[in-house]
Amino acid sequence: MTAKILVVDDEPDLEDLIKQTFRRQIKEGSIAFGFARDGIEALAALAANPDYDMVVSDINMPRMDGLTLLGKLQEEAEKRSTVIVSAYGDMANIRTAMNRGAFDFLTKPIDFADFETTVRKTIAHVAALKEARARQAAAERAHASLSRYFSPNLATSLAAGGNVLTLGGERREIATLFTDIAGFTPLVESLDPKQLAGLLSGYLEGMTEIVFAHEGTVAKIIGDAIHVLFGAPADQPDAATRAIACALALDARSEEYRKEWQARGVTLGVTRVGVHAGPAIVGNFGGGRLFDYTAYGDTINAAARLESVNKQLGTRICVSAAAAERADGFLGRPVGDLVLRGRRQPLRAFEPVAEAERSSPHTAAYLAAFGKLEAGDPGALAAFAALIGERPHDALAQYHLKRMLNGQSGVRIETA
Cα angle at 208 between 204 and 212, to 5 degrees? Predict the structure, then answer.
């Protein structure tokens, strides 16, 4: 690779001296020189050949001096380095030049051995800068490409060459959520393929944007179902807070989307969300040729079960106590102690309460009714009946009322 140097000086003999000093490098093609007699000629030369790596400029020149030229070159300082030549005693100008971004300076009369050393040092500096910029550009291209397929935080780790590429996993404390659309499989059979593609792509685009806004990692998308991780691959001390906030935002967006498609004559089911927190093994489990960043363990299974149990409860979001306890400012309506499929120990779960409902009388009445149910108070049935009378579409209150009318009591719930 040839290093290109522009020498700016009005001394007529300097060009021959430089060519003689660097004759071997010029012959080998490692260095090529251009010459200009003042700042104006230099700017014209740089405009015609912007690939100069280095400028060596005298200060005292007609029409445009070296300091003025240096000021004009400041905007392009990332492209090349400038060395200023001045009389030894002219320290004020040398300081001005360095303050304006000069990489180094030479004193007159020029010591050509020192000149060669300065050229080598400056060219090495320029080469290092170019290499760093090339690495940065490559990383930015990689990040942009990876961001088309992965969550932004996962793409950042991949583009930076992080250990997420390494096969195998690590145990981490995470929060996780699963989403699924109720009744999606039969809906697929009834839709035209183009209509289905538009519905699904719009849904997934909106949902993943919300996940990314909460800095979650999309571990998997299978059809309409989404699995999201918080606290991996990077640590997030507020993972549970993010997960629950994300679940509420996903719920709001999916309800808006349902209305949009209902106006087009398509009945889209509700989106069910399950949220849990705890230890899991996370990492790349894809094998030698496939990258598959995902998570395994009881925490993951429980979150998936919580998503599914919404169907039985009539709720849209079900959050475990483990996630609720880790989240800042969480307020939820207790669902009960769920015995999830495949688990022996019950898991307390909650339906998160939106901000607008936190201080509502209905929420307070539900908490009081659930307290009666948990305490075995016979007045629980009347309390839940009153809730339904006030708000007939309260699915969770309906669920508990039906349980009691069917002879069940307490808050332990066997799930299907």
Answer: 170
Strand partners, 33: 5
Q: What is the pLDDT of residues 151-198, one digit of tens each?
A: 666 666 655 655 555 567 889 999 999 999 999 988 988 888 899 999
Looking at every residue in the chain, the average pLDDT score rounds to 86
Nearest Cα to Cα of residue 334 among 346, 319, 344: 319
Confidence check: pLDDT of 123 > 90? no
DSSP 239-253: HHHHHHHHHHHHHHH
Query: Do 284 and 313 meet the contact criterion of CB atoms below 8 Å apart?
Result: no
- Pick from 292, 69, 266: nearest CA to 183: 266
Residues in the chain: 416
Number of C-beta neighbours around residue 237 at 10 A: 10
3-state SS, residue 199: helix
What CA–CA distance (Å, rounded) separates 102 from 51? 18
Confidence of residue 367 (pLDDT cuts 50, 70, 90): very high
**CA torsion sign, 144 to 149 to 155 to 158?**
negative
pTM of the model: 0.66
Percent of the chain with pLDDT over 70: 88
For residues 81, 84, 88, 91, the Cα torsion angle rounded to the nearest 10 degrees is -90
Neighbours of 172 (CB within 10 A): 19
Phi, psi of 84 (to 5 degrees): -100, 140
**pLDDT score of 358:** 83
pLDDT above 70 (res 205): yes
- State mean pLDDT over 354-366: 89
Q: What is the rounded CA–CA span in Å between residue 44 and residue 165?
A: 49
Of 411, 252, 276, 408, give the one whose Cα is nearest residue 334: 411
Phi, psi of 110 (to 5 degrees): -70, 130
The radius of gyration computed from the CA coordinates of the chain, to the nearest angstrom, equals 34
pLDDT at 270 over 60: yes
- CA gap 253, 261 in Å, rounded: 12
How many CA atoms lie within 13 Å of 159's alpha carbon, on the beta-carbon side?
A: 22
Q: Which residue's entry shows tokens 């669902």?
A: 335
Q: How far is CA 214 from the centre of its chain?
A: 9
pLDDT of residue 89: 58
**DSSP 8-state assignment for residue 93:** H
- Number of helices (H), then strands (E), belonging to the chain: the values are 15, 14
